[in-house]
Amino acid sequence: MLLAPWAFGPAARADQNSGTLKGEVLINAAPAAGAVVYLQPQGNRPSEPAPREVTIIQEQLRFKPSFSVVPAGTTVRFENRDDEIHNIYSKSGANRFDTGAHLPGTAKKVTLKEPGAVPLRCRTHQNMRGLIFVSPSPYFSVTDDRGEFEIRNVPVGSYRIEAWHPRLTAEESARGAQVLKVDAGPKVLQLRFDAKAPSGTDLTETAGQDWTSVVEQIHAELERAISLWKKGNRTAATSTVMSAMSKLYGESGLREKIAQTIGPDRALEQERRLDSIRKQVQGVGGTEPVTEEALQRESGLLIDGLTEDVKKITAP
Questions:
Q1: Is 6 a residue whose pLDDT tops 80?
Q2: At which of 158, 193, 228 does a domain end?
Q3: Both 186 and 265 in a single domain?
Q4: Nearest-angstrom CA–CA distance, 208 and 94
Q5: Both 128 and 14 in a single domain?
Q6: What is the pLDDT of residues 15-41, one digit of tens each?
């Protein structure tokens, strides 16, 4: 879950033509901390200009802050206070960028124009993790540990209120959105969302993932498992297939991505194919003799299927 976010919103300007929104965000009926709640003006009313610049520091091999919320159009200044060379990048669609070599004591600037989540990574320090959420408007708030939020100084008018959370897919977020009218004074509401992903899931971790590389790694592990099986080492072969299932297919996020994009039945089908190969190299559950040809055929069908899945989940 995202902790201690920084949010750069509009300057305070309370008057009789503005209101305040308060409320809570629930996901699967439980309070959701770390959700970004934002308003999109209805009609042709423009939002206020974004701040010209905000700063995120790299220090002690960490992004500080690790989570920021900024309006679309904000320029982010990355400042390197480490004695190490960084290379900050993101593969987040229209906000994709790469700072190149980022020397100690220097700063790099990136303008984020499109709304959405922007995961931050460093090519030279793989454990560095950061996230920026780019809000489509300057009227936003981040929920606290109780799932509560407050957006102040909202001009009177009609809005669509939405919420983003790392556990929600875009479709799940859209289903929980509401259209409302803001009047002078306070307004209280509740946003409810249903999520398929279990509590603690961070779907942004898989954003920009090189799924083709994951499939290639699965293929290599299956080839290794078959080689071990041919040498009579069933235990090592079984362990290799199980590792491919849990770490490459599961923990990489590929299974979840297939379930979200194509459907849970497809994700389960591919998991069963992997488990079928595991049973064959382990020598359990079958009545027919296992052959190298049969293992190669099963492996080929799985990899071909995963390759097609990757084309679908990465299609524009």
A1: no
A2: 193
A3: no
A4: 12
A5: yes
A6: 568 899 999 999 999 999 999 999 999
Which residue range is the domain that position 256 belongs to? 209-313
- Residue by residue, DSSP assigns the chain as ---S-EE--PPP---TTEEEEEEEEEETTEE-TTPEEEEEE-TTPPPPPPPSEEEEEEETTEEESSEEEEETTEEEEEEE-SSS-B-EEE--GGG-EE---B-TT-EEEEEE-S-EEEEEEESS-TT--EEEEEESSS-EEE--TTSEEEEEEEESEEEEEEEE-TT--HHHHHHT-EEEEE-SEEEEEEEEE--SSPTT--GGGGTT--HHHHHHHHHHHHHHHHHHHHTT-HHHHHHHHHHIIIIIIIITSHHHHHHHHT-HHHHHHHHHHHHHHHHHHHT-S-SSPP-HHHHHHHHHHHHHHHHHHHHHHT--
How many domains, in total, are found in the chain? 2
pTM: 0.67
- Same domain? 250 vs 152: no
Q: Does the residue 102 lie in any domain?
A: yes
Q: What average pLDDT does the segment 223-251 reach?
A: 92
User: 45-70: per-residue pLDDT in tens?
Assistant: 656 666 789 999 999 999 999 999 99
Among the listed residues 95, 100, 104, the one whose alpha carbon sits nearest the alpha carbon of residue 76:
95
At 116, which CATH number?
A: 2.60.40.420
Closest C-alpha to 7, from 168, 202, 139, 204 = 139
Claim to verify: residue 179 and residue 260 sit in the same structural domain: no
Q: Is residue 203 part of a domain?
A: no
